[in-house]
């Protein structure tokens, strides 16, 4: 019995330790940092960077020496026959002698090295690798900003759901108390049935909202886990509350931060597009240049009536060739010229897109500043309105039970309170989200 008890205690301790290890508790910044490392899109963005490095070397390696080898074996099951005038061998003029040249089996081994000496497209390709690496880095930065925004939004939604559940539970408890007291007043003949029914309607509505909020709490938590790269049902815990988080996100100096458009990731991506179009134009122009390649090979061949090429006494005949290949484009019926002009047009379009992007980003910045300031102002207003709605609802409760106010007046005050509560919660989430959106444009965190 004692051993069973000890085993049970040990099992409980192991289970507790396991649950503590698998539970995750995060502040908002902890959640963002974790997501930047473990979010599925962020992981693939990191792989894209590695892929870009490999592609860079792949491009460079095409202009370096290339060595290839070849081994060949032939067995002429039926040797070709040539007809030679018989008089060459002392035969009758006008007749022919059947002759087969060589031996039926042949083996050869060859190694060839090629070296690119000049190719305009290769030079442009190597130059373009730097731009491609820059694009990959900027794309990774863009992904990081999107992951940060998504994590902040998901974190805020979880806090919103938690606060909603808590508020709705308090509202439900208050309504149940009101309904109980009103029911007793009605049963004692001091009230009307309509007041009871009015409270039942309100209670039923709040109860449904509470059930939905509980479901949303689980769903938003799963969304946060997915964004952070954690299993959906992992017992993630949040160590901040919505009000404190909103207070920390109020920074009136942020809209006044000096803006350098070159730090904006969208601007950098449009610059990358311009670089890409520029190198495409240079590549089209390089097609008119000649290409020069060199090669050298070395090989050996052997001949035999039977397969004895692996014997040490088999005779092999060496051969080697050194050569150059020069290709000069002479006339393409103006195809290359048309291709170059198209590339030039694409470059000019990219320049126009860059100018447009500059204006759009500046407009987005002003809009984000306005949205952030408005969110702060609405947060202050919603907080004040919530206090007013609570006092109004409390006064109406007192008036109602004193017989001064009707059940309709009480329901109206309660509905106003519930709306103010949700507005207040949403205003806090908006402060957090709008600040994140503004920081993404300014790229304050320099992710």
Word description of this protein:
The structure is a single chain. By secondary structure, this protein is an alpha+beta fold. The protein folds into two domains: 24-63 and 119-289 and 331-442, Outer membrane efflux proteins (OEP) (Up-down Bundle); 67-117 and 292-328. 65% of the residues lie in helices and 14% in strands. It has nine helices and eight strands. The protein has helices at residues 2-22, 28-38, 40-61, 120-187, 193-228, 242-248, 265-286, 335-401, 407-442, and strands at residues 24-26, 66-75, 82-85, 96-99, 105-118, 236-238, 291-304, 317-327. Helix 8 runs antiparallel to helix 9 (407-442). 21% of the residues are buried. The model is unreliable at 13-21 (pLDDT under 50).
Question: Total strand count, please?
Answer: 8
Please state how the strands of the largest beta sheet are arranged side by side. Answer: 2-5-7-8
Number of helices: 9
Fraction in helix? 55-70%
Tags for this entry?
Outer membrane efflux proteins (OEP), 14% strand, four-stranded antiparallel sheet, 9 helices, elongated, alpha+beta, single chain, 447 residues
């Amino acid at each position: 019995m004692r051993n069973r008890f000890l085993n049970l205690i040990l099992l409980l301790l192991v289970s507790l330790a396991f649950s503590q290890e698998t539970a995750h508790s995060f502040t908002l910044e902890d959640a963002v940092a974790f997501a930047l490392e473990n979010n599925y899109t962020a992981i693939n963005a990191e792989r894209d960077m590695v892929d870009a490095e490999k592609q860079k070397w792949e491009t460079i390696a095409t202009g370096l020496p290339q060595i290839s080898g070849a081994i060949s074996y032939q067995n002429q099951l039926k040797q070709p026959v040539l007809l030679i005038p018989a008089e060459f061998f002392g035969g009758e003029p006008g007749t022919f002698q059947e002759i087969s040249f060589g031996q039926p089996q042949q083996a050869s081994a060859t190694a060839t090295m090629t070296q690119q000496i000049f190719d305009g497209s290769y030079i442009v390709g190597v130059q373009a690798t730097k731009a491609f690496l820059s694009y990959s880095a900027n794309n990774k930065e863009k992904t990081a900003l999107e992951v940060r925004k998504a994590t902040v939004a998901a974190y805020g939604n979880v806090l919103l759901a938690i606060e909603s559940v808590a508020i709705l539970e308090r509202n439900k408890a208050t309504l149940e108390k009101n309904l109980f007291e009103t029911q007793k007043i009605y049963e004692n003949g001091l009230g009307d049935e309509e007041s009871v029914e009015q409270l039942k309607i309100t209670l039923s509505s709040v109860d449904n909202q509470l059930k939905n909020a509980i479901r949303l709490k689980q769903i938003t938590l799963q969304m946060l886990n997915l964004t952070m790269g954690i299993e959906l049902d992992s017992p993630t815990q949040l160590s901040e509350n919505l009000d404190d988080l909103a207070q920390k996100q109020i920074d009136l100096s942020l809209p006044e931060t000096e803006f350098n458009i070159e730090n904006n990731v969208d601007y950098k991506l449009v610059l990358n597009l311009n670089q890409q179009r520029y190198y495409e134009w240079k590549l089209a122009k390089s097609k008119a240049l000649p290409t020069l390649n060199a090669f050298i090979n070395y090989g050996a061949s052997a001949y035999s009536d039977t397969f004895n090429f692996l014997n040490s006494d088999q005779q092999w005949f060496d051969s080697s060739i050194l050569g150059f290949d020069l290709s000069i484009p002479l006339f393409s019926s103006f195809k290359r010229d048309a291709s170059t002009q198209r590339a030039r047009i694409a470059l000019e379009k990219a320049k126009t897109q860059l100018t447009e992007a500059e204006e759009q980003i500046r407009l987005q910045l002003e809009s984000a500043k306005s949205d952030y300031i408005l969110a702060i102002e609405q947060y202050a207003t919603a907080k004040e309105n919530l206090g007013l709605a609570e006092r109004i609802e409390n006064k109406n409760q007192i008036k109602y039970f004193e017989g001064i106010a009707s059940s309709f007046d009480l329901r109206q005050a309660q509905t106003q309170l519930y709306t103010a509560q949700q507005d207040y919660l949403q205003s806090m989430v908006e402060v957090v989200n709008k600040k994140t959106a503004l920081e993404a444009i300014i790229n304050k965190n320099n992710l």
